[in-house]
Design a protein that fits this description.
Length: about 500
């Protein structure tokens, strides 16, 4: 028994020396993709669309009964596989087309077996299976539909020939796998070592034309599966990378469009908070914002997480009074795997492709891998924004929720402000003392018309008090004495 692993023609996509089944809806680009691979293989390219090509290109035989000769000329010319006069070039040894067909009857299979024996390791492209077996009168829905395919595979197997059969999908291909997508009986996919499914990445709405021409390719069978996203341009195919992330993005977009009611409102709020300043959201904030009970807030979070729209990126620390940590949530896809600041795309970056960093004064610490932020500690001196100015004289009293922070007046903790947001309503400062109050030099007049310095903040430190006393003495010297001098109140 030969236990050697089956080698690849096109790594992850086409297996060598066996039968491969390529299924796709009409006009997705099945024939064009195979022609592109053959052209790259013939030119000696190491990779095609990001996947390795193995060895040298052998003689190629195209059983293209499904298309007329001029269509094949257009496809092959783009890949450099024909001459200007229409003659076949490169590795293409023979081409059957609608005008000169080959069918998978006994005569046709015998002819292909002779060619395989004369060209060991040859590559056979059959387009399409239905066109090659339709004259035989076999019903697609019966198990006998795979009979000609098995007979052809048996005829080519002794000569290590590679066979790719193209077949059309059924109408329910969207979201399916390569095996179930094949039209007719599942007996046909069963006879192939590898099935390849091509389909539009984004399906148009009913009654609309296709506007997104990206194609997702998925494989399934007796080897490791592959998923990638490609697109056919005027000069050939290009790759958009591995398909898992692209498909996940499309799934998230569809899930977002399907949101209704409270879930839609909550998800919009979470996205807006992240876009404003990369603020994750807690269940408590959702309760306060939407006036809902805690269990309903947690239920919405769980549903949005299950739909792949948000994820838990960290948690707030426990409060000093014994409060439990609260989970922080942000939209999926908000941060790349390695956080990067000011990521732009092209010359005209859009909001969707830009990640802005925190304020230079922010006491948050951005952690790698999307672990969220560390909130300011209890007692941290802060400034509170009042109108267009920043007011000192406050400290953090409760920061268990970084988007609903409570601050207290320095020296008078009974005076508090709640539900303040970091870097919007609050920012850090070096001292908790309200220096700005006595820098305004508010001077009150006493009944004897002597100046009195007004300080409406807690007493500063001893060193700062000395400066204030010196400032007061200086003012007194500048004042004209109109009566008995009054002792300085300090």
């Amino acid at each position: 028994m030969d236990t050697t692993p089956t080698p690849w023609v096109w790594e992850g996509v086409v297996m060598a020396g066996t039968t491969n089944l390529l299924v796709a809806p009409p006009k997705v680009g099945k024939s064009a993709l195979m022609a592109g691979m053959i052209g790259a293989w013939w030119r000696g390219d190491v990779n095609y669309l990001g996947h390795k090509l193995e060895g040298k290109c052998p003689p190629v035989f195209i059983i293209g009964t499904d298309q007329p000769e001029n269509d094949w000329f257009t496809i092959l010319k783009r890949e450099g596989l024909t001459k200007n006069n229409g003659e076949l070039a490169g590795p293409i040894e023979c081409l059957w087309h609608t005008g000169a067909p080959l069918h998978l009857n006994d005569k046709g299979i015998a002819e292909l077996e002779t060619l395989a024996s004369q060209n060991p390791g040859a590559f056979f492209l059959l387009d399409s299976y239905h066109a090659c077996v339709s004259p035989l009168g076999i019903d697609e829905a019966t198990s006998a539909f795979d009979g000609p395919a098995r007979a052809l595979a048996s005829a080519l197997a002794p000569y290590q020939a590679t066979l790719v059969m193209i077949h059309h999908t059924n109408k329910s291909v969207a979201g399916g796998n390569a095996t179930n997508a094949s039209r007719g009986s599942n007996a046909l996919p069963a006879c192939a070592s590898l099935t390849i499914l091509m389909n539009w990445l984004k399906q148009p709405a009913e009654g609309q034309t296709q506007s997104d021409f990206r194609v997702v390719l998925k494989t399934q069978g007796r080897a490791k599966g592959t998923t990638m996203v490609t697109e056919l341009l005027d000069n050939g195919w290009i790759t958009h990378g591995e398909g898992a992330e692209a498909m996940a993005q499309e799934a998230r977009a569809e899930a977002e469009l399907d949101l209704q009611g409270r879930q839609a409102d909550i998800f919009d709020f979470i996205k807006e908070r992240w876009e404003v300043g990369e603020f994750p959201v807690t269940a408590t904030e959702l309760m306060n914002r939407f006036h809902i009970e805690r269990n309903k807030a947690h239920r919405c979070i769980a549903q949005l997480t299950k739909k792949g729209l948000i994820y838990r990126c960290g948690e707030t620390p426990a409060t000093l009074d014994g409060g439990r940590p609260a989970g922080l949530f942000q939209p999926i896809g908000s941060l790349p795997p390695d956080p990067v600041t000011n990521v732009t795309k092209g010359d005209l970056p859009s909001r969707a492709h830009e990640l802005k960093g925190l304020s230079p004064l922010s006491s948050y610490k951005q952690e790698s891998q999307g672990e969220g932020f560390i909130t300011p500690d209890y007692g941290t001196p802060v400034e509170r924004k009042v109108g267009a100015e920043w007011q000192k004289g406050w400290i953090v009293h409760d920061a268990s929720n970084p988007h609903a922070i409570t601050i207290a007046k320095t020296g008078n903790p009974k005076i508090q402000f709640k539900n303040l947001r970091w870097d919007i309503d609050l920012r850090t400062c070096s001292s908790p003392f309200a220096i700005a109050t006595y820098e305004r030099e508010d001077v009150l007049e006493s009944s004897e018309r002597n100046p009195i310095l007004s300080i409406d903040s807690p007493l500063p430190s001893e060193g700062e008090m000395g400066e204030i006393l010196h400032l007061t003495d200086y003012r007194h010297k500048e004042q004209k004495d109109e009566g008995n001098p009054r002792e300085d109140p300090f």
